[in-house]
Amino acid sequence: MLDNPSLNQKPINIRRALISVFDKTGVVELAQSIDRAGIEILSTGGTAQELRSAGIPVLDISDYTQFPEIMDGRIKTINSLVGGGILGLRDKHENDAELNKIQWIDLVVCNLYPFSETISRENCSLALALENIDIGGPTMIRSAAKNLGWTCVVVSPLDYSIIASELRSGRISFETRKRFSAKAFGYTAQYETIIHNYLKDGPLSENYSLTFEKHSELRYGENPHQNAAAYKGPGNSEPNILNATIHQGKQLSYNNIMDADSALSCVRDFKSPACVVVKHANPCGVAVGTDLLDAYQKALRCDPVSAFGGIIAMNRTLDGEAAEAMVEIFTEVIIAPAADEAAIAAISAKKNLRLLLTGGLPDAGAGGMTLKSLAGGYLLQSRDAGRIGAGDVEVVTKRQPSAQEMADLLLAFRICKHVKSNAIIYVKDGATVGIGAGQMSRVDSARIAARKSEDAAVYSSP
Question: In CATH, what class is 241-357?
Answer without folding.
Answer: alpha beta
